[in-house]
Design goal:
The structure is a single chain. With 208 residues, the protein is an alpha/beta fold. It folds into 2 domains: 79 residues, no CATH class; 92 residues, Vaccinia Virus protein VP39 (Rossmann fold), CATH 3.40.50.150. It is 25% helix and 20% strand. It is built from 5 helices and 10 strands; from the N terminus they run αβββαβββββαβαβα. The chain has a 4-stranded mixed β-sheet, with helices on one face. A hairpin with an 8-residue loop joins strand 2 and strand 3. Helix 4 packs parallel to helix 5. The chain starts with a helix and ends with a helix.
Length: 208
């Protein structure tokens, strides 16, 4: 976290996603964000909860269906937040007027801090279209919301644990550049192949 802070742009953001840990006699599954939120020079804007629809089933506890993100920024008074880029068009009353003026933004409403995106699933007849061999792959739609909200076009995205390369794929899709770091050579190759395939598909669309 210290190293990421050192290379983050002045108006940049740091999105942290980590799981949970047992704490001996204190707790079975304590979310790591609760232990990390104040151990950095970043400023915490808020926690975002990712709610997904599939996962393990508990017998002596509630079945887990969420992961936590901590949204940090480097400068509390000056940071990128592109609300219009991530507005939710699913508005219950989109044509509400007051004193002759439309009350609702025509682009949609501000998303809540609970995000509902389906997991990247595997298995016969239920595997997601974007599924790769990586066991903990983020859905592109989830990372795309983070990227659109917290960066401008041509910005550089740093993913220190790039895994299957979803951040790089989203960077290509949204007009950003990316730097990925990954300890596994197998996943590095996977990330590069996904990135190149995305770039090729985008080039094909532009040519058409």
């Amino acid at each position: 976290m210290r190293l990421v802070h050192a290379v983050t742009a002045a108006a940049g953001a740091f999105w942290l996603n980590v799981g949970y840990t047992p704490l001996h006699q204190s707790g079975k599954a304590v979310p790591l964000p609760y232990l990390l939120w104040n151990l950095t020079d970043f400023y915490l804007i808020q926690e975002v909860v990712w709610n997904y629809g599939a996962g393990v089933a508990g017998r002596r506890f509630l079945s887990p269906r969420n992961e936590k993100f901590l949204w940090f920024v480097k400068n509390a008074d000056d940071y990128v937040f592109n609300l219009d880029a991530i507005r939710d068009p699913d508005v219950k009353y989109p044509r509400q007027y007051k004193n002759g003026r439309l009350k609702v933004n025509p682009l949609g409403k501000n998303p809540t801090d609970v995000w509902q995106f389906a997991k990247v699933t595997s298995g016969y007849q239920r595997s997601s279209a974007e599924r790769t061999p990586h066991p903990a792959q983020f859905p592109e739609a989830l990372i795309e919301r983070v990227v659109l909200a917290s960066s401008e076009k041509n910005a550089v995205l740093l993913d220190p644990f790039s895994g299957s390369g979803t951040t790089a794929v989203v960077a290509a899709k949204t007009g950003r550049r990316s730097i990925g770091i990954e300890i596994s050579g197998e996943y590095c190759d996977l990330a590069v192949s996904r990135y190149l395939a995305k770039k090729e598909s985008l080039s094909g669309l532009l040519l058409q």
